[in-house]
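#structure-requests
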Amino acid sequence: MSDIDIRVTGRAGRITLTRPHALNAMSYDMCMAIDTALRNWREDDAVDLIILDAEGDKAFCAGGDIAELYETGTAGNFDFGRTFWRDEYRMNAFLFEYPKPVISFLQGFTMGGGVGIGCHGSHRVVCESSKIAMPECGIGLVPDVGGTLILALAPGRLGEYLGITAGRLGPDDAILAGFADTYIPQAQWADLIELLEASGDPAHIATHAQDPEPGPLRAAQIDIDRHFAGETLGDIQNSLTGDESEFAQKTLKAINRNSPISMACTVEMIHRLRGPSLSIRKALELEYRFTYRAMEHGDFLEGIRAQIIDKDRTPKWQFAGTSVPTVAVSKMLQPLGADALTFEEEKAMKIGFIGLGNMGGPMAANLAKAGHDVVGFDMAEVNIDGVTMVSSGAEAAAGADAVITMLPNGSILRAVAADVIPAMSKGAVLIDCSTVDVDSARAVDADTQAAGLLFVDAPVSGGIGGAAGGTLTFMAGGSAEAFGKADPLFDIMGQKAVHCGDAGAGQAAKICNNMILGVTMIATCEAFALADKLGLDRQKMFDVVSTSSGYSWTMNAYCPAPGVGPQSPADNDYQPGFAADLMLKDLRLSQQAAESADADTPMGALAQALYAQFVENEDGLGMDFSAMLPRFEKRGRE
C-alpha cells in the first residue's frame, strides 16, 4: 500500500506512514492495515517491539481523512462513517492494550486520528517540532480515538481546556498533559531507531532522553484550573466572560470558533470519565455514542463544509450564541443499545432485574438494548421493551450472571434477598441500586458471602431522566471483585460509577451526598426568596452567584427559579425530576445513620424537619424538591 509501509526490521515491527503530501492523514485502509499488522505481530516471537513513525517533517499524522466521510455523509450514508469510527476505535483499544512495547515518533502535527495511533503506546517520543492537538470541536466532533481518556487524566483542568480550545502542545506541554513521555531531538531519531531494531530493547529511549524547553502551559495552569472547574460549558463561559484578563479574552475567542454542542459534550464526557474506573474502552464507547450521531444530529457535516470544503470559516452551528440545553447533551451521549461499540471478547450476560418501576424499568430496558438477556419481575404488571417478565424474583434470579434490584426500602431488600439468594448461581453478583439504610446493605452482603455470591450496594443519582437516558451515577460499595463484575453494567445504565469502599459504602456516599443536596437546595431557595424581597433581579443574582463563591449544583445545574439558568423542573411547574418525598426519605436515612454513628448533623436534621413539614403538612407531596422556593416566597420571617 503506497500510503503506509509495514515491514519487520531486525527485532522490530515497523509501521511508517507515507502520505507526507496529505500530512499523513489516516484513511480507513491505513487504519485496517495497522490493525492487521499489530495482530500478526502480537504472537510473533521474532518481533519484540513496534515502531510507529512517518515520512516528512510537517506531520506524524494530522488526523483522519475526512473527505470520504463528508462525501458519504452529505449523501445521507451515515453507515460509512460509523463503520470507520467503530473499527478505528477498536484498533485504538487494541494498540493501547498491546502486550509488547509500542514506540511512536511524533514530529510536526499529531492531531485527531494521529493521537489515536501515536499517543496510546508505551513510549511516545516528541521533538522540537512536535505540535499535538485535539481540534475536533472546530469541525463539530469531540476529541475521540481515545483522546478523552488522556484529557480526563491530564493534571487539574487541562483536559477541559485542551478539549474545547483545541490548544496546540509543544514537546514540554505534550509531556505535561499526558500525550507524550520523552523528548529527544529529531536529529537523534535515526540512530535510536537503528538501536531499537537491532536490540528489540526500549531501554535505549531513556538513554537518549533530554529535557525540553519549558512550554507555556505550566504558567497558565492556575488560570486554567480557575476558569475550567465548572460543571458545564456554560459555567466555563460565564467564568471567562467575567474576567477581563488577556488569558480569559484570548480563550473566549478560541472557544467561540467551535461547535457549542461539541464543546458541551466534551466537557460532559471528561467529567463522566474522570475517576478510578476510567479505561480506554469506557472512553471509546462514550466517544462512539457521539460520533455515531455526529452526522445526523451534530454539527460535523456543517463543520467540514465551513472549514474544509467551502473554507468560508463561518459555520452555522447549533445553539450558536445560546446555552446548550442539558437535554441536547444527554441525547448525543445516551447509550446506543444494540449499536453500542463493543470489543471482541465481550459477551452478553443473563441479568435478573427485580423492581421495574420508574427507575428500574428504563434501567432494565437499557441493558436489554445493549444486547443482554434481561429477565424481570415486579409486583405490578408491567411490560418493559426487551425484558422477559416472569412470576417471581427467584425465577428472575435463576441462572443469572447478575441480579439487580431497585426497591423501596431496606426491609423489602432483605426480604427479596432472602428469596433470590438460594436461586442464584455460585459466583453471581447481586447489585442493589435502591437507596436503603447502611445496616440493611451490610446484612445482605453478609448473606451473599455466606452463599458464595458477590454483592454490590450501588444507589444511584440522576433521577428518572438519568435512568431513561443512561446517565445515572452509581455510588458502589463492595469488594473489588464484585465491583469489577458489576462495572460493565454500570457503564450501560449510567455515566459514572465510583467504587466507594466495602459493602455499605455506596449507601453511605448516597446518604451524605443527598444530605448536602437537601441542605443546599433549601439555602438556594431561601436566597432567591430573600433576593425577591430585597428587589434584586433573579437573573442578576444567578449571574453573580453562579460564577462566584456561592456556586453550587442547586444553583448552576438545577436552579429552583423558573426562567433562570439551565432548564430545570422549575420551568415545568415543579413536576418532579427528584421528588420532595424522596428527598425526605433520604434525609431521614441520613439522620438514622447519624444517630447510629453518633454524628452531629444539625443542618441535616433541620433540612429533614423542613422537608417533612413541606411534604406532610403543606403542598410538597408530588412536587419536585426544588419547589421549596415558592414555599419560601409565600412566607415571612417568623
